[in-house]
UniProtKB/TrEMBL annotation:
Name of the protein: Phosphate transport system permease protein
Domain ABC transmembrane type-1: 57-285
Superkingdom, natural source: Bacteria
Gene Ontology molecular function: phosphate transmembrane transporter activity
Keyword Membrane on entry: yes
Assigned keywords, A-Z: Cell membrane, Membrane, Phosphate transport, Transmembrane, Transmembrane helix, Transport
PROSITE patterns the UniProt entry points to: ABC_TM1
Job of this protein: Part of the binding-protein-dependent transport system for phosphate; probably responsible for the translocation of the substrate across the membrane.
Primary site of residence: membrane
Locations listed in the record: Cell membrane
Length: 297
């Protein structure tokens, strides 16, 4: 009887997750249909739904990619240091500190970014606009407040750092001991052992952790809404100017309270696009993490 009850409850929990996910998808699709079929003149800004969603989607992907490019190398370095270089007592404490970053509310990161981090990046942005303006990413003019796409991406990088670091640390610690000991016995240095035995084993786990962090960055709302100074409908690769595209989540948070009618449907349609992208990213990450089981000693 106990086995049957446990099996039934576990099966019910699994089915419930699928039902909730299907319900969310159904709601988003049903509420997006009016915006998808409406005339462009009736939508916000008098633009088609594609023209409305595309700048938001571009800003979402740009901020998330910046965060991923910055956070992944740092997270991997932190994971390797904690696992193979730091003394045991230091490694334990440092691991707790890194994991605590995941418990900080996103609004705290937003206040930190707008009040402390962004103003201190202004001199860097001025220097980039003066000496590296030939690069399209830093063409300027530099923002006087520091509330730029690059700032938002760096704040997101700090937020996703503990996710990538925790998964990488777990994978690196499970590298086959025989492989590590064999490399050291053959005269390899600690870095050579990591390069030949640990990194090949943990590659899929690092990629999976990076994709999970990317999923978090794609859906972040309050931190981006507070830090980023947006210009509606803009698509720009300039990372240091005051003219920045918004993200889908931040745009919904800022505009939903004052919207009505088709404007609400347009916001939900943008949420549907974010739902599809986030689901695809997390599905891809899960498939990569599962492939790690194929690598064993």
């Amino acid at each position: 009887m106990g086995d049957r009850l446990f099996s039934g409850s576990a099966t019910g929990a699994g089915i419930l997750i699928l039902v909730v996910l299907a319900g969310v998808a159904t709601f988003l699709v049903a509420q997006s249909v009016p915006a998808l079929t409406a005339d462009a003149a009736d939508l916000p800004g008098g633009k088609s739904i594609v023209a409305y969603v595309w700048p938001l989607l571009f800003g979402t992907l740009l901020a998330a990619i910046i965060a991923l490019l910055v956070a992944t190398p740092l997270a991997v370095g932190i994971a390797l240091f904690i696992t193979y270089y730091a003394p045991r007592r230091l490694a334990q404490g440092l691991g707790y500190v890194v994991d605590l970053l995941a418990a900080i509310p996103s609004i705290v990161f937003g206040f930190w970014g707008i009040s402390w981090f962004a103003p201190r990046l202004v001199p860097l942005y001025d220097w980039l606009a003066e000496h590296a303006s030939w690069i399209p990413l830093f063409s300027g003019p530099a923002s006087p407040t520091g509330r730029t796409m690059l700032t938002a991406g760096l704040v997101l990088a700090v937020m996703i750092l503990p996710i990538i670091s925790a998964i990488s640390r777990e994978v690196f610690s499970q590298a086959p001991a025989l492989h590590r000991e064999a490399a050291l016995a053959l005269g390899a240095t600690r870095w050579e052992m990591i390069r030949m035995a640990v990194l090949p084993y943990g590659r899929s786990g690092v990629i999976g952790g990076a994709m999970l962090g990317l999923g978090r960055a794609l859906g972040e709302t309050l931190a981006v809404a507070i830090v980023l100074s947006v210009s509606p409908g803009v698509v720009s690769f300039n990372l240091i100017s005051s003219t920045n595209p918004s993200t889908i989540a931040a745009n919904i948070a800022l505009n939903f309270p004052d919207s009505s009618g088709l404007a609400v449907n347009a916001l939900i349609a943008s949420g549907l696009a974010l739902f599809v992208i986030t689901f695809a990213v997390n599905f891809f990450a899960r498939s990569i993490v599962n492939r790690r089981a194929e690598f064993s000693e």
